[in-house]
Amino acid sequence: MSMIGSRLTYQTSGESHGPALVATVVGVPKGLTIDTDVINHELSRRQGGYGRGGRQKLETDVVEVLTGVRLGKATGAPITMVVKNRDSRLDDLERTPPVYRPRPGHADLAGSIKWLTTDCRETLERASARETAARVAACSLGRLVLKEIFDVEVFGFVRSILDARTDVQVTPDTWRDLMKVRDASDTYTLDEATTEKQREVIRGAKIDKDTVGGDCECHVFGCPPGVGSSMNWTDKLDARIAYAVMGIQAFKAVQIGMGAQMSTKRGSQVHDPIHFDESKKNTASLGFVRPTNNAGGTEGGMTNGQPIVVTGTMKPIATLLQGLPSVDLNTKKPEDSQYERSDVCAVSAASVVMESVVAMEVAGAFLTKFGGDSVVETRGNYDAFLDVARTLPIEPIVGGGDDGGTVIA
Ligand code: EPS
Fold first, then answer.
1. What mean pLDDT, rounded, does the chain reach?
2. Model confidence over 171-230: pLDDT tens digits?
């Protein structure tokens, strides 16, 4: 199937210190259970993590569903959700003054020139990571689509903050237990010793009026081979995931599976051998098992039956208490950048955002391939596909054999 975009789309609006953040999601199949507890759980995780600033003490993010839901189920219409801002003061010039000294690393400078003003305020209000509350609300619907219709689950966590990194490996058998460890870790990582190291790294940065970034990782379990497409570059699932992850505030790199390390290895060390195990025929892999997963669950822009593995790198937050060398946009004279209340580290929160946007892209790809108007129709389409995939071949077997390969002189 060829597609342009996804059958599941979303948009957010709202400023960091405006009255509210709004999310609209189009394409949720009729009949999906819209469990606001799941949405609010993710919103509260997004507010947490060691190293956050004062804002999260002011806010308790709770979603209000305004449209597209009746008696707790999606009607098939666009779903609009609102998260109210308690710290709403956009038009209060004393508490929310103009910003004339742009922060290196933030959207301030580029945005003020783009909109032909020396006041960075409007740029930063929209560029702020506060917007991710709306994105998490929107993308929680992707999480619900994956779980209820396709039995696909998503697990995100913090791999590293600065140099404090966990080496714990995540597998389909271990992730549920690791989720408990993550939820007990106030940096959302996978072991206690790394949690403590990450806390120290953040504490040290705070004392030095500095900030730190890190790596988030996300695994998607339960995808059969063939979701996404290799036909057009816009339809490749790995490309769509990369787009979504790079669209998160402060993310500067995205990798799938072994990612950038692949350039340091030979093909035989990279590509995951294919075996067939009849006893695994009824699992997501349809029996095509791989001893390694360097591909990170995608080949040719499609799922390959292995868990999807995504790493996203967040830069250190651009708002430093100590300021950084900058200029006053009105006088053009050197001045340190203006301080706005911010976080020392938001990698833990970002891991929730990343998990959410990955879930949404994968849900969109599933609905693009299998989507009907309702949950019942979509599930029927999915089951029919799996039945045929498990009984292949369905066409007469013609030709075959090896075409000889390439000779390099
Ligand atoms: C955030 C809200 C913001 C910042 C932070 C994340 O609120 P405020 O600016 O009122 O303190 O704490 O945003 C940024 C890191 C940024 O660069 O703007 C949130 O809710 O996640």
1. 95
2. 999 999 999 999 999 999 999 999 999 999 999 999 999 999 999 999 999 999 999 999
- State how far the Cα of 344 lies from the Cα of 86, in Å rounded to an integer: 22
The predicted pLDDT at position 268 comes to 98
Tokens (6 digits) for 166: 């966990």
Q: Which of 17, 42, 45, 55 to mutate to test the pocket of ligand 1 (most atoms within 8 A of CB)?
A: 55
What is the reported pTM?
A: 0.96
Q: Can you tell me which atom of ligand 1 is nearest the CA of 58?
A: 10
The percent helix, strand, coil of the chain (3-state, each to 5) is 35, 20, 45
C-beta of 108 in contact with ligand 1 (< 6 A): no
Q: Which residues pair with 156 in a beta bridge?
A: 218
**Ligand 1: distance of its center to the CA of 182 in Å?**
23
pLDDT given for residue 2 in this prediction: 41
At 270, which amino acid appears? V
Asked if residue 172 lies in contact with residue 219, where contact means CB atoms within 8 angstroms, the answer is no
Q: Tens digits of per-residue pLDDT, 317-341?
A: 999 999 999 999 999 999 999 888 8
Residue 409's pLDDT is: 55
Phi-psi region of 370 (alpha: psi -120 to 50; beta: other; left: phi over 0): alpha
- Cα gap 299→274, rounded to integer Å: 12
Q: Which helix (H) or strand (E) holds 196?
A: helix 192-207
**Domains of the chain and CATH, by start:** 9-400 (3.60.150.10)
Residue 398 burial (10 A CB sphere; 0-12, 13-18, 19+):
exposed
Residue among 126, 23, 27, 22 at smallest CA distance from 367: 27
What are the CA-CA distances from residue 371 to residues 28, 362, 380, 382, 405 (Å)? 9, 13, 10, 8, 40
Does 130 sit in the ligand 1 pocket, CB within 6 Å? yes
